[in-house]
Amino acid sequence: MAAAARLFIRGANSKLSIAPGSLGTTLLKLSPNCSSRTKTQRRHAAHFTFQPDPVPSQYGPTQKMNLFQSITSALDNTLASDPTAVIFGEDVAFGGVFRCTVGLRDKYGKDRVFNTPLCEQGIVGFGIGVAVAGATAIAEIQFADYIFPAFDQIVNEAAKYRYRSGNMFDCGNLTIRAPWGCVGHGSLYHSQSPEAFFAHCPGLKIVIPRSPIQAKGLLLSCIADKNPCIFFEPKILYRAAVEQVPEDPYTIPLSQAEILQEGSDVTLVAWGTQIHVLKEVASMAQEKLGVSCEVIDLQTILPWDIETVCKSVVKTGRLLISHEAPVTGGFASEISSTVQEECFLNLEAPISRVCGYDTPFPHIFEPFYIPDKWKCFEAIKKMINY
Amino acid sequence: MAAVSSMSKMYGLCFHAVRQTAGLKAYRLLQRRGFRVSVLQLQQTFDSSLEKPQFPGASAEFVDQLEFIQPNVISGIPVYRVMDRQGNIINPSQDPQLSKETVLNFYQKMTMLNTMDRILYESQRQGRISFYMTNYGEEGTHIGSAAALDPNDLVFGQYREAGVLMYRGFPLDHFMAQCYANADDLGKGRQMPVHYGCKDLNFVTISSPLATQIPQAAGSAYAVKRENTNRAVICYFGEGAASEGDAHAGFNFSATLECPLIFFCRNNGYAISTPTNEQYRGDGIAARGPGYGMLSIRVDGNDVFAVYNATKEARRRAVAENQPFLIEAMTYRIGHHSTSDDSSAYRSVDEVNYWDKQDHPISRLRHYMTARGWWSEDDERSWRKQSRKTVMEAFERAERRLKPNPELLFTDVYQEMIPSLNKQRESLWRHVQQYKEHYPLDLYEK
Predict the structure, then answer these.
(1) Is the ipTM of this structure higher than 0.85?
(2) Chain B nearest-CA residue for A228
(3) Per-residue pLDDT band at A29 (split at 50, 70, 90)
């Protein structure tokens, strides 16, 4: 146990030392000549403020839950109502590295919530097989950054199973879940948003929630949906996002974008964490520029709700799309291309994409990399003054 | 991946351990730090006065001599067989003593497959179908294993297992329809020839990427285990596909998750032009099984009874004991890899002739039958004539049939039609209406 503690202290500031506490826990003791207030040590605050949605009244009693708890709730509902449902992946048995599956193995049994060997291509391939045999498969990939070994199984197999077999076989019962997006310190391999890679693959559905209420409803829709779905969970929201979430199961429809606030001058489109950035940007635009923004949460990346976005752009004439993923080939390019095809004459300004740069996701440079509210605000200014 | 778990431990522990240490029991704390905790290990006392290794990762003794384990490739895992190359039973206790009717059926299925292969290979040469893969020399692996299974057992294949489908009763018309991609194709004309599938016969549709079916088979076997209906799953692949990462994944998952699954490797000596000594350095595929904790056997794939016996026993135990079995069936690919291949570029005609003439599953079974007076020269002549006629009739029917309606280009992408795809469909139709003389509409159903 002390060895494990030493492992994560290795490489950290040598002024810190460990004092063993009771029950095998450890406490970090700062030595006297180390100030905790120096600029170099203080970590950057989050780039957004989570804005909870109002308490839903139409789904029955609610409970305060954060994002990972709302996921657990959805999985709990699923295991309770669907006896074929199984959840598997790396480390899901003890509750998962993000605690999304806490308690489920004890409640439903080790044949239904189980660890797999460390092999993403195996996790997804196995999941496809479970689904093909008619059972509900919920596969967890530990970080979206590690989904790539499974890319062949997802794109060449899962997405094409129904089409290539003439509808004799399908893996509609498969849902893949993965933590997604920037987290403040995740760097190259714990921050990625890979939705664009999969958006190019007909046959898949890709869904990204912005909050606990959305997450539970959308995840339950993915599980119920008769097509293979990838559900990306914004990891930075796992603890930070807290809402009153209905305890009973409910579904939020896929491929229906949600207009979070109506506006007349600019349409702002995003998904996941970035919605909270855009909501703040919308306030800033109203306050500082007198500009009225319509904020749309796309929710489903594939198939995406072209109609809602285009209808909004016809109204406002300006579109800003924002995502953390690199701008080139990012999903904003698909939205931009389709909108200019459908709404060309309605556009007052070029469509703006405020996205990550075309670099791998950096560690210490994250505050400069991310499409923060100031960059979005500036982009709106440019569009208004075009 | 060690970095991941320490990273996630950092993320997890910083939040969880610091904030919630008070309420945690030691047991749950152990779990969260990713220690493999089993009840046994919790109860194990760590006593260093005992000289046995205490490592969680392996159960073993200490040794004080430095010695590398030698992989045994000179005399590897032996090849189980029942008949010699002339079709004589070697050890009578191993003769499955199948009825005359059953054995005749084996023979007729193997030869029917052979006849269909000859005709469809030729039809590709004549430009009637776009592509074909023959099964020459491997008929024994298909029929022997298929016969040992239950009809309800789920089959995942690679692409050279048409005999399994044939044994299960897939009609010639359906084989032809898929190869011709005509309107009778169960797959709706979407895939290249030989990518068969049949839901009713529990044969999952073939896909071109190699070895992808291996972890899928493990998943289906797991689901089937939970159903408790005494079904097994079998997964076929070649020795080349066994090099893919998916094969390693499938073997490991099926063993750790205790799946009722038979892995059936057709080791036919070549992966297109790549011979086995460029595919692996170890003792074939069977030797990998023990590495995964799997029971494994190597059999003579050209001996239909050996294949039958091994598959039968593997199936019985896989279902009874919920564990995977690995069967490596040694055989030889007499034909080219496909119609896109000319194997004289990388192997000698003499080598091919040896297998065709001296060690062929069909000949060996025929000798077994003739020795028992179950099959005569006359039977052979009339069967050859009849099977060829049957295949030709199906062939001609398939040739005349129209292709499926082009609407089927757009369906089954999702379970439901989606608006954007519907728009694309409409756009194609408008285009085809305008430029109809440039599209072969007459060949397709309306």
Answers:
(1) yes
(2) B414
(3) low
The CATH H-level (homologous superfamily) assignment of domain A62-246 is Thiamin diphosphate (ThDP)-binding fold, Pyr/PP domains (3.40.50.970)
Record: contact A135-B226, CB cut-off 8 A: yes
User: What's the pLDDT at B38?
Assistant: 44
Task: Count structural domains, chain B.
Answer: 2
Are the Cβ atoms of B245 and A114 closer than 8 angstroms? no
Q: What is the mean pLDDT of residues A232-241?
A: 98
Say yes or no: A132 contacts chain B, CB-CB below 8 A: yes
The residue-averaged pLDDT of B367-381 equals 98
Does this model's pTM top 0.95? My answer is: no
Q: Phi, psi (5° rounding) for residue B421?
A: -70, -35
Cross-strand partners of B296: B326
Q: Which of B227, B256, B419 is nearest residue A117 as measured by Cβ atoms?
A: B256
Amino acid at B257: L
B24 or B200: which carries more pLDDT confidence? B200
- Least CA distance to B156: which residue of chain A? A129
Domain limits at B202?
92-403
How many alpha carbons fall within 13 Å on the CB side of residue B254?
Answer: 40
Q: Are residues B188 and B333 in the same domain?
A: yes
| B284 vs B288: CA distance, rounded Å | 8
B248 contacts B199 by C-beta, under 8 angstroms: no
| pLDDT (0 to 100) of residue B51 | 83
Query: Rounded mean pLDDT of B284-306?
Result: 98
CATH (one of 3.40.50.980, 3.30.479.10, 3.40.50.920, 2.10.109.10) for A258-385: 3.40.50.920
Nearest to B146 by CA among B329, B317, B295, B289: B329
Helix, strand, or coil (residue A319):
strand
Give ∠ CA A327-A333-A334 in degrees, rounded to 5.
Answer: 145
Q: Which candidate in A90, A157, A190, A280 is catalytic?
A: A190
Q: Is B329 found in the same domain as B299?
A: yes
Q: Does the annotation mark A190 as catalytic?
A: yes
d(CA A354, CA A370): 9
Cα separation, A194 vs A231, in Å, equals 11
Do residue A169 and residue B186 have CB atoms under 8 angstroms apart? no
